[in-house]
């Protein structure tokens, strides 16, 4: 039963504390956020203390001393004492402790970087030789070769790190993944995985490993927007006790190309065109589509890119994938293949295109803000890590090549094995020092994990390291605090720009006797060793024959989507190709898609005013493999487990609103973890129908519809006032058009009627996400509203073009 409060509430304005933009014009802060979560309580303490600290200095008393003769003797700066260290901190999550973050006690008034140099003095006595990521080195005498007399392998990350550091010992924005957001947290293992890997983070149930995770868009520059159609980076740095492991993946399990040789071409094509530097953060232009239409192996990835996966609702509601096939190696030296999957417990949810495009203007920081607000309020995002584990013998029986990064291993073929979960529980203190300077590299692996011969992965092993040397000013980027491992680092690398460690002694080589042979190589048992894969092949440039199947898995993906998701894919292709100016490029893309699905190609062609051309010739005579649809590939199969937590709900108000009802709904939403906001035409107070007042937290202008997951239109005479405000009418229209839940109580239904929102679905059936009720039956209606809010959108409303 929902109770309705007749007077002011201790929770009034809680939604504004849980948000990072706007708030009541002049009101007492809340005394509760509707939650007993300790991080949420600290957020409230931090907010209130910060407001009090700012209010303690109503003006600058030293300003008169800056002019005339008084300026000759400047006074000490004016200060105010905070009531708590939280008031001046970056985030209430600074109390979270881990082996990487430290004790969780804020260092108030302290700069440890200028303390005694003992903090950076390093001595390798009695220590194993390691890489700069803290990975113990088994063999420091030999490079990794293809056979004892064969060529040196490009994947020898130990050799490359050692030589590259030496090359740069004498002393810019990322090219891709420039725009990103990140957070600290931990990975907790579910079980002992020692049967398949000696990686220490999987050694025992309950073992926690600190992590730093960065999400990003690929194509845009740092100043671009969060919600553009793009691949999203999903990179996790595990600070293991045997060195750093970087799982550098994306929110899609495949990629556009099969070989690293083509990566510069791909990125050049998708970046702004070089003659006029447009468009920014978009693939909807000629050069990208010209390139991919001549690279049919891109077809599978294009289907993912044109799907809703490319416009995630938030970083917290998107999957992550390692993309490539990797190896797992156990203590006995036995190897299996593996693919990595991250699944968000919040569910996998996306935006709709019209919403995503409008968010670019309404809040270009939408994803960054969402991640920060969720963590600061104690609603820590969680993902489950699962592995697809299979043997080389199994891989040889598949209809595709597991070394081809344009292919997935369907879950029906190799089920997922959950092995642990990641929790992000602390925001960074400083964006530049942590999020911007963090350096992920596919070459950073630990004992128990190894590479496969995936030709795209093999090139990434070099590319990331080389880029970081340029971007972060030299070969010592591993000493930047966010990049430093928690495992001890001892090696003979010296000098270079920005060196932090001060090494004792005269020895910087191995073997040596002057330092007692230290640091010494760890040996086979304790150090990193590569899997001794037997290879007897000619040197050659080319691809295996199975790489030539460009369309069967693209068909699998499309056939596995729900009808509404298929319609979104067709609409995305139509939009992108409409922006293309060169007819031959459009025709080539359609000819590519004709090999995937004739209905898809026909729908896109009709939208472009074109005929469907003949399919592109295939690159192989082998028949296409026919896959059964895979439900796991549809977003609608992944609603999540966390209910309405962190979902943002607008409560539209104006003079005459039922204030007790607003407070009752607001409180009930808070209790279940949602973030309600009181939204009105302007900041200030509105008069309620019972003679009280409500504080508007954010305006329709500053907080448009696309920023919210749902809307409530309460009872009262406010509907008359709101009905005269075009912003309010647009607000409910867009909530309907974007298929979001709507709760209207009593007279509130009049606003929907005036906005032209139909009471039923286009087919005449009831809309389960459009809930109407009278005030006396609020409790069951609110329950139904929360159910709709926790699930996927009411896509049955959609029409193309939209009717509302």
UniProtKB/TrEMBL annotation:
GO terms for molecular function: catalase activity. Its EC number is 1.11.1.6. InterPro entries: Catalase (IPR018028), Catalase_AS (IPR024708), Catalase_clade2 (IPR024712), Catalase_clade2_helical (IPR043156), Catalase_core (IPR011614), Catalase_immune_responsive (IPR010582), Catalase_large_C (IPR041399), Catalase_sf (IPR020835). It catalyses: 2 H2O2 = O2 + 2 H2O. This is Catalase. The lineage of its organism: Bacteria, Pseudomonadati, Pseudomonadota, Betaproteobacteria, Burkholderiales. SUPFAM superfamilies: Class I glutamine amidotransferase-like, Heme-dependent catalase-like. The keyword tRNA processing does not apply.
């Amino acid at each position: 039963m929902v109770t309705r409060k007749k007077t002011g509430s201790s929770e009034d304005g809680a939604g504004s504390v849980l948000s990072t933009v706007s708030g009541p014009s002049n009101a007492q802060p809340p005394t509760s956020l509707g939650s007993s979560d300790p991080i949420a309580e600290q957020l409230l303490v931090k907010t209130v203390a910060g407001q009090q600290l700012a209010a303690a200095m109503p003006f600058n008393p030293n300003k008169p001393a800056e002019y005339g003769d008084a300026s000759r003797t400047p006074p000490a700066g004016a200060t105010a004492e905070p009531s708590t260290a939280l008031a001046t901190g970056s985030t209430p999550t600074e109390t979270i402790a881990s082996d990487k973050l430290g004790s969780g006690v804020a260092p108030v008034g302290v700069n440890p970087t200028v303390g005694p140099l003992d903090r950076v003095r390093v001595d390798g006595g009695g220590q194993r030789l390691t890489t700069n990521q803290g990975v113990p080195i088994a063999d420091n005498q030999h490079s990794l070769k293809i056979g004892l007399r064969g060529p040196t392998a490009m994947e020898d990350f130990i050799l490359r790190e050692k030589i590259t550091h030496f090359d740069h010992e004498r002393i810019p924005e990322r090219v891709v993944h420039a725009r990103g957001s990140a957070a600290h947290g931990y990975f907790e293992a579910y079980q002992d995985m020692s049967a398949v890997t000696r990686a220490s983070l999987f050694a025992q149930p309950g073992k926690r490993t600190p992590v730093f995770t960065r999400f990003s868009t690929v194509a845009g520059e740092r100043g671009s927007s969060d919600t553009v159609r793009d691949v999203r980076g999903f990179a996790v740095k595990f600070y293991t006790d045997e060195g750093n492991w970087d799982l550098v993946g994306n929110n899609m399990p495949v990629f556009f190309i099969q070989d690293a040789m083509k990566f510069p071409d791909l990125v050049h094509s998708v970046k702004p065109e070089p003659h006029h530097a447009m468009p920014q953060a978009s693939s909807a232009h000629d050069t990208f589509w010209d390139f991919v239409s001549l690279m049919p192996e891109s077809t599978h990835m294009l289907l993912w890119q044109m799907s809703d996966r490319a416009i995630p609702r938030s970083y917290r509601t998107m999957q992550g994938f390692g993309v490539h096939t990797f190896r797992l190696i156990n203590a006995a030296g036995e190897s299996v293949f593996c693919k990595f999957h991250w699944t968000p417990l919040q569910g996998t949810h996306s935006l709709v295109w019209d919403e995503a495009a409008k968010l670019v203007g309404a809040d270009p920081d939408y994803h960054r803000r969402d991640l920060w607000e969720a963590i600061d309020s104690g609603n820590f995002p969680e993902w489950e890590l699962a592995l697809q584990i299979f043997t080389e013998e199994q891989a040889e029986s598949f209809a595709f090549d597991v070394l081809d990064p344009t292919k997935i291993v369907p879950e029906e073929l190799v089920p997922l094995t959950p092995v642990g979960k990641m929790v992000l529980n602390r925001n960074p203190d400083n964006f530049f020092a942590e999020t911007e300077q963090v350096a992920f590299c596919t070459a950073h692996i630990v004992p128990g994990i190894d590479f496969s011969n995936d030709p795209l992965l093999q090139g990434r092993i070099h590319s990331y390291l080389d880029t970081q040397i340029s971007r972060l000013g030299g070969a010592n980027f591993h000493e930047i605090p966010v990049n430093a491992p928690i495992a001890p680092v001892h090696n003979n690398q010296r000098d270079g720009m920005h060196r932090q460690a001060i090494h004792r002694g005269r020895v910087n080589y191995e073997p040596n006797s002057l330092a007692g042979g230290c640091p010494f190589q760890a040996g086979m048992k304790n150090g990193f060793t590569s899997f001794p894969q037997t290879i007897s092949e000619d040197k050659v440039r080319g691809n295996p024959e199975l790489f030539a199947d460009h369309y069967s898995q693209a068909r699998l993906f499309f056939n596995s989507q729900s009808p509404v998701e298929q319609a979104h894919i067709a609409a995305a292709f139509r939009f992108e190709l409409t922006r293309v100016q060169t007819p031959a490029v459009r025709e080539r893309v359609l000819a590519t898609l004709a090999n995937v699905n004739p209905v898809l190609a026909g729908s896109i062609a009709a939208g472009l005013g074109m005929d469907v051309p003949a399919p592109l010739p295939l690159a192989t005579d082998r028949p296409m493999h026919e896959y059964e649809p895979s439900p796991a590939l549809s977003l609608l199969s992944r609603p999540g487990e966390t209910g309405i937590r962190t979902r943002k709900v607008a409560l539209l108000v104006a003079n005459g609103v039922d204030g007790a009802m607003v407070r009752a709904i607001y409180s009930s939403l808070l209790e279940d973890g949602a973030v309600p906001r009181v939204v009105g035409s302007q900041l200030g107070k509105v008069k309620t129908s019972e003679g009280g007042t409500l504080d508007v937290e954010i305006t329709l202008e500053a907080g448009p519809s696309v920023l919210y997951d749902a809307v409530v239109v309460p009872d009262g005479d406010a509907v008359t006032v709101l009905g005269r405000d075009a912003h309010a009418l647009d607000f409910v229209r867009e909530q309907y058009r974007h298929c979001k839940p709507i709760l209207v109580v009593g007279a509130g239904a009049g606003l929907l009627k005036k906005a032209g929102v139909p009471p039923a679905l286009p087919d005449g059936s009831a809309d389960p996400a459009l809930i109407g009720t009278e005030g006396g039956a609020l409790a069951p209606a609110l329950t139904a509203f929360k159910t709709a809010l926790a699930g996927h959108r009411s896509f049955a409303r959609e029409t193309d073009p939209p009717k509302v």
